[in-house]
């Protein structure tokens, strides 16, 4: 019988909407600057060069509706509203035309960001980990199976802070579509069930403060919310 030095953390998982089932999460990939207008507001020139990615840790996951403390080490805490892909079948060097067969479902997500730490890392040519991969940085709704909603290629994506709209776009504006993202990632990884992919955020990102309430949605996928608490 295996004996651990300490009790392992519970398996990170996301509930399935309308079900008692859970989707176990092993990896979280995030696509950088995947909406042209957002790329421009971040000072980049959008193009169709291969997409780039960063990662979050499954322990960063937090459920929609949660209240979380304002994070450590930042004075510029940003929201990024996103469509999330959940992989359901192994995908390795899959072609875009076959990639959707490997997608199990979708969710709404918030890629929460310590923007000041990310910007410092950019200027110094360092990885983005401190800005992107931290506790409670990956907010997510219950997953909805593609068997129920299909594979959304268009639909409104929006976010509001304290009822004031900040982001308002359409997922058809993704530079790299869902099948293209899955196909591209599968050139570098053996994608497996349990892999989540945050697909990028539209323009309008900005900072939130303790006491703020974030709400958002992706048409046909779901609604998300987050309450920003006081710092620890």
> What characterizes the major β-sheet?
8 strands, mixed
Share in helix: 10-25%
Number of β-strand runs = 18
Q: How confident overall, as mean pLDDT?
A: 94
Our Rg estimate from Cα atoms comes to 17 Å
What's the SSE pattern?
EEEHEEEEEHEEHHEEHEEHEEEE
Structural class: alpha+beta
Please state roughly what percent of the residues sit in beta strands, choosing from under 5%, 5-15%, 15-25%, 25-35%, 35-45% or over 45%. 25-35%
Write down the overall geometry.
Answer: globular
CA-CA gap between termini: 39 Å
Uncertain residue ranges: none
Description:
- The protein is an alpha+beta fold.
- Helix content is 16%, strand content 34%.
- The chain is built from six helices and 18 strands.
- The protein has helices at residues 36-41, 96-99, 115-124, 129-132, 146-149, 178-185, and strands spanning 13-15, 22-24, 27-31, 53-56, 61-63, 67-69, 77-79, 81-87, 103-111, 113-114, 138-140, 144-145, 156-161, 164-170, 195-198, 206-207, 213-218, 222-229.
- Strands 3, 4, 5, 8, 9, 11, 12 and 15 form an eight-stranded mixed β-sheet that branches. A five-stranded mixed β-sheet has the order 6-18-17-13-14, with no helix packed on it. A three-stranded antiparallel β-sheet has the order 10-7-16.
- It is globular and about 40 Å long.
- The termini are far apart.
- The relative contact order is 0.26.
């Amino acid at each position: 019988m295996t004996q651990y030095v300490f009790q392992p953390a519970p398996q990170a998982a996301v509930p399935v909407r309308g079900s008692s089932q859970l989707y176990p999460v092993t990896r979280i990939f995030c696509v950088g600057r995947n909406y042209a207008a957002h790329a421009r507001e971040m000072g980049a020139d959008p193009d169709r060069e291969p997409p780039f990615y960063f990662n979050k840790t499954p322990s960063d996951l937090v459920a929609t509706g949660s209240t979380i403390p304002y994070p450590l080490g930042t004075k510029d805490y940003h929201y990024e509203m996103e469509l999330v892909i959940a992989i359901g079948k192994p995908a390795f060097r899959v072609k875009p035309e076959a990639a959707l067969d490997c997608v199990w479902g979708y969710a709404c997500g918030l890629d929460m960001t310590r923007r000041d730490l990310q910007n410092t890392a950019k200027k110094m040519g360092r990885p983005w980990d401190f800005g992107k991969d931290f506790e409670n940085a990956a907010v997510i709704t219950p997953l909805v199976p593609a068997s129920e909603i299909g594979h959304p290629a268009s639909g409104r994506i929006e976010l509001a802070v304290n009822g004031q709209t900040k982001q308002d776009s359409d997922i058809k504006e993704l530079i790299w579509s869902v099948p293209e993202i899955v196909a591209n990632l599968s050139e570098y990884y053996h994608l497996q069930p349990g892999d989540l992919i945050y697909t990028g955020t539209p323009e309008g990102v900005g900072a939130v403060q303790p006491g703020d309430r974030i709400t958002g949605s992706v048409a046909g996928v779901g609604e998300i919310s987050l309450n920003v608490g006081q710092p620890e």
